[in-house]
Amino acid sequence: MFSHLYGYNKTEMKIIVCLCCFTYFVEWSVCQSTTQINLYYQGTKILRESYSVKEKNNAIKSGDYKLYSKEGKLLLSGQYTNNFKSGEWNTYHDDGGLKLISVYDNGTLISETKCGIWVSTEKKGKVRKVIDYSKSPVPQYYFDIKFKYPALARENGIQGFVNLEINTDNHCNIKSMIVKDSIGYGCEKEVIIATRELIKYKKRYQIDSCRNLNKIIPFNFNLSK
User: Fold this and answer.
1) For the chain, which residues make up each domain, given as ranges?
2) What is the rounded radius of gyration, in angstroms, for the C-alpha atoms of the chain?
3) Architecture per CATH, 34-114
4) Cα 223 to the chain's mean position, in Å?
């Protein structure tokens, strides 16, 4: 009877009522009061995680979220809406600098932006890769390589510098490698192996610093390191 007063039939009124109920539920769900939850590293009073949950349902995260290291440094921060990641989430480097910006919409990852300097290792820790994302618009790659200290050299207390002269062409291909200063005991061999690996990685990532190279590289064999 009342539906005709507003110009709607019964089916249309049912749809309107359902939409109103859904809107009320969403608004009620978002606006519910929250309870703060703090989690600590086992056996300590060091804060690990901090976030809020709905008072009516403590399984639903809502509001700010923070994750800390055992040293108390902020590792991750962001916000939940009805248990879904939303907005900007920030991941931090160990030194506190911004590492990654992730943007979410209702739990779906929309975009990611890497920041600062990222360090990783390859070849079982022998090669250290450093990527500097602050060098906009193109990130800069750097490589360090660990060279092996021959056991015989260690046993005999041998230390000092091995200087290696290296020449490459425009495509980072090695033209020549000459040991200029030697300390023996297999150190020169390890220097050559390490240099070949270093040039190979620079060539893979098309780093200009390995093009037309003509320089002497010092390798320090130090027993205290």
Assistant:
1) 2-31, 34-114, 118-221
2) 30
3) Single Sheet (2.20)
4) 33
Amino acid sitting at position 130? V
Name the pTM for this structure: 0.59
Determine the pLDDT at residue 19.
44
Q: State the 10-residue block means of pLDDT for the chain, 225 residues long.
A: 47 48 42 83 94 87 95 95 96 91 96 89 75 78 83 94 92 91 93 87 76 86 88
Length of the chain equals 225
Contacts of 22 (CB under 8 A, 6+ apart): none
What pLDDT is recorded for position 25?
40
Give the separation between CA 152 and CA 54, rounded to whole angstroms.
65
pLDDT for the residue numbered 58: 82
**Residue 33 token pair:** 């009061």
Q: Which two tokens stand for residue 142?
A: 């750097």
Question: Residues 37, 51: contact at Cβ < 8 Å?
Answer: yes
Distance between CA atoms of 48 and 42, rounded to whole angstroms?
A: 9
Q: CB count, 10 Å around CB of 170?
A: 7
Q: Could you tell me what percentage of the chain is helix, strand and coil, using 3-state DSSP and rounding each to the nearest 5?
A: 25, 45, 35
